[in-house]
Amino acid sequence: MKATVVTLAGALCALLIAALTPAGPARAAGLPPGLVSASLLPAAPQPDGTVMTALALELAPGWKTYWRSPGETGIAPAFDWSGAPNVAAAAALWPSPQIIESEGAQTLGFRDRLVLPLRLTPADPSRPIEGMLAVELGLCLNICVPAHLRLAAPGAAAAALDPRIAAALDSAPRKGEGTAHCSLAPISDGMRVSVSVPAAGARAAAVEVDGPGMWVSEPDLTTAGGMVTAAADVVGPTGKPFALDGARVRLTLIGDAGAVEYQGCAPS
Fold first, then answer.
1. How far apart are CA 112 and CA 37, in angstroms?
2. Do 78 and 143 fall into the same domain?
3. How large is the C-alpha radius of gyration of the chain?
4. pTM of the model
5. Dihedrals φ, ψ of 28, to 5°?
């Protein structure tokens, strides 16, 4: 059974640009089709010295955007903080995705809205996070189009964490219990990885491999004897079989009760 992110049709290769100003979230007149508003939420300082903000998107009815794993032909979201010089490092903390069924295909993403927490490490903690963030993402109705947004950085820190950010953090995938086991086998252009965990109720899965230039196929998801197995092909930059460390493999299972995540797998 195929069980994760795919596009509904070939992507329309057009770049759609929206410029967002510090005055607040832009509205539909200045945004790509399918996007009603977009902004970065006020940043709040954290005890570890980082600041927490979030990308907030409101989508038009029927439209969706991708989760962090875009599938074989999807559009992976990308963030460029070079226009905000006080950002030394940034990490996206993804909430659990929705399973979206459309025209016989299944995708992992978000309808209606997305609040994506972003943890920023300032180069100078005494200065605000100012400048611009460039975001590339896919927006989908019957076809998926790439969109490019420029968002004003949050500026001065807020006194407390926005409740929308707190809710998104609470909805992140739970850490899976037990150990994930994997088997690896070479294929002509990479490796076949099968990850098994004791679980039940999974309706979709995503297999991800840490590292630049890694392409992962839509996994096959099977359940037998109380074990769930997701099997996918992994192709690296060389297009040849390669040594794959199980610690680089991440499995996410999504069901009606939310998402469960396993980082790393031990040899079967």
1. 11
2. yes
3. 19
4. 0.85
5. -55, -35
